[in-house]
Amino acid sequence: MLSQKTRYTIRALQHLADHWQQGAVRLDAVAEAQNIPRKFLTVILAELVREGLVISHRGRDGGYELALPPVDIRYGDIIRLTRGSLALVPCASRNAHEHCTNCLPEVECRLRGLMLTLRDEMAAMLDRMTLADPIEVEPPFADDPAPALTD
């Protein structure tokens, strides 16, 4: 699952993308609209400024804006920046590969093969999607318990 930092980062960047070329957006406006704690958002935005994705403006009319057009910021890059990897298990990571503990040797592990395939498919999709792409809001799942499986 995505870390809280990654989720906050994506929501903050989506908010800035929604206000692309409308001037700087105040930190408090982003925090309130996206339900992100102000202190945490300050740290996230400072990191995004250092990475060159966001521009910070000081002063009375200060705030933050994207440094690049939304079409040039891909979700895959955002997740890699904040999480380090798109893989669900360490042995399937392309950039931060680690051997799994308490597992089979990698040459024998079919779970690793599955996770590599999943990681590659997910990476391809996330690397196609940018902050400029429309994303529909999905209704919440029903509160009803899942139907029982039958034979």
Description:
- The protein has helices at 4-18, 27-34, 38-50, 75-83, 110-128, and strands at 54-57, 63-66.
- The chain contains 5 helices and 2 strands.
- The mean pLDDT is 89.
- The protein starts with a helix and ends in a 23-residue tail after the last helix.
- Strand 1 (54-57) and strand 2 form a beta hairpin.
Summarize the structure.
The protein has 151 residues and is mostly helical.
> What is the alpha-carbon Rg in Å?
19 Å
Mean pLDDT: 89
Weakly predicted, low-confidence segments: none
> β content, as a range?
5-15%
Our count of helices gives 5
* Largest beta-sheet details: 2 strands, antiparallel
Structural class: mainly alpha
How many beta-strand runs?
A: 2
The best one-word shape is elongated
Q: What's the arrangement of strands in the largest beta sheet?
A: 1-2
Percent helix range: 40-55%
Order of helices and strands: HHHEEHH
Q: Could you give the distance between the termini?
A: 31 Å
